[in-house]
Amino acid sequence: MEPARHATEQTLMRELGLDTQNIDRRKRHFTFGPDDVVKLVALRPIVAAHAAELVDVFFDQLVAIDEAKTLLSNHELTDRARTMKREHLLAMVGGTYDASYVEQRLRLGLLYARAGLDTRVFLGAFQALVRSVGVRVMREGGAEAFDRFTSFEKLAFFDVSIILDVLVYERERTIRQQQEAIRELSTPVLQLRNRLLLLPIIGVIDTHRAQLITDGLLRSIRANRARVAVMDVTGVATIDSKVAHHLLQTVSAARLMGAHVIVTGLSSDVAQSLVAIGLDVGRFNTVGDLQGGLEEAERILGFEIVQRQGDHGVRVG
Fold it and tell me: Kind of pairing, strands 228-235 and 285-287?
C-alpha cells in the first residue's frame, strides 16, 4: 500500500470514529458473528469463480446512469475501480473482517466520492451486485445456500454503512470547502502595498458576516504586519445596531494589534442610522470616499501625495 494513501485512510478512520470498538459495534448491529465468518468462507469458491461476472454486474448497472459518467468516462479510474471491486468481493469471503478490511472499504468509498458517484447510484449498483451473488449462491451453494447468503447480506450491509459514511463525509467536506471559498470571496482582504490593506464590503452585513469580516481582517493584519486597513462600505445600504457595534469592536481589536482602520464610503442613510442608534462615531476614523481613504492611509504610512496638473498624483516617500 502506498504510504500517503494509507495515511489518508488512517486519518479518515479517526475522523469517522472507526476504531476497534466502533467496528465491533457495527458488526453487532448487523448481528454479524463468528458463525457468519464460517459461512462466508464456505462461499469463497463460488464468489471467486464468478468474480469477473459479478464485477460486470456492478458496472453494467452504472452505464445508463448520467451521474456515473465521471467515473466511467475515465478509463484509468474505471480500471482501478474494477480492480478494487474485485478485491472487495474476494475480501468479503476472505474470513478476516478487521481494521484492514475496513480500510479497504474506505479506499473504495474515497474513489467513488472523488469520482462524484451519488449515494443512490452506488446503492442501486451494489444492490444489483448482491442480488447477482444471491442467484449464484442459490444455484451452487447446496443445502446451506440460504443461510450462507444471509451471512453475505449481513456483511454487505456492514460494508454499505462504511462506504456511505465516506460518501456523505466527502460530500459534506466539499460543501464546507465551497462555503469557505464563498465566505472568503464575500469578505476579501486585499494587500495594496506593504503594510496597507483594503477591505471592500458589498451587500448586506448580518451578524454572521460581520464576524467573518472581523476574523478575516484581523488574520490579514497579523499575516501582513499591516499598519493601516481601509474598510470601504460604499456598497453597503444599511447597517443595524448589532453590526455597527461589531464593526466598532473590529476597529478596536485592530488598534490593539497596532493597525489603524479607516472607514470610507458611508452613505448618508448609514451615517444617519449610526447617529440615531447612539453609536460613538468619534471612535471611527471616517473618510468620504475610497480615494480619500487611500490618501489618508498613505499619509499615515509616511507617503506624501504630490498633485500635478492633469495627474492624479504621485507618491513621494
Answer: unpaired
Can you spell out the DSSP letters for 201-227? Answer: EES---HHHHHHHHHHHHHHHHHHT-S
Question: Counting beta carbons within 10 angstroms of the beta carbon of residue 309, is it exposed (0 to 12), middle (13 to 18) or buried (19 or more)?
Answer: exposed
The DSSP bridge pattern shows strands 304-306 and 314-316 to be: antiparallel
Query: Tens of pLDDT along 223-282?
Result: 999 999 999 988 887 778 888 888 888 889 999 999 999 999 888 888 887 888 777 767
- Residues contacting residue 253 through CB under 8 Å, at least 6 positions apart: 214, 218
pTM comes to 0.62
Parallel, antiparallel or unpaired: strands 260-264 and 228-235? parallel
Q: What are phi and psi of 315, to 5 degrees?
A: -95, 135
Write down how long the chain is: 317
Q: Which residue shows C-alpha cell 462504511?
A: 162
Question: E strand or H helix at 283, and its extent?
Answer: none
Which residues partner with 190 through β-bridges?
Answer: 198
Q: Is 64 exposed, middle or buried (0-12, 13-18, 19+ CB in 10 A)?
A: exposed
Question: How far is it, in rounded angstroms, from Cα 293 to Cα 176?
Answer: 35
| DSSP state letter for 143 | G
Tens of pLDDT along 54-93?
999 999 988 878 878 878 888 888 899 999 999 999 999 9
C-alpha separations of 109 from 5, 26, 79, 198 in Å: 13, 17, 15, 43
Locate the DSSP E strands across the chain. Answer: 190-193, 196-202, 228-235, 260-264, 285-287, 304-306, 314-316
Residue 286 β-bridge partners: 263
Nearest to 88 by CA among 70, 114, 106, 115: 106
Given a contact cutoff of 8 angstroms between Cβ atoms, the answer to whether 7 and 134 are in contact is: no
E strand or H helix at 47, and its extent?
A: helix 44-49
Sheet arrangement for strand 228-235: 190-193, 196-202, 228-235, 260-264, 285-287
Q: Which three cell numbers stand for residue 96?
A: 478476516
**Interval 11-28: pLDDT, tens:** 888 888 899 999 999 999
Residue 1 pLDDT:
46
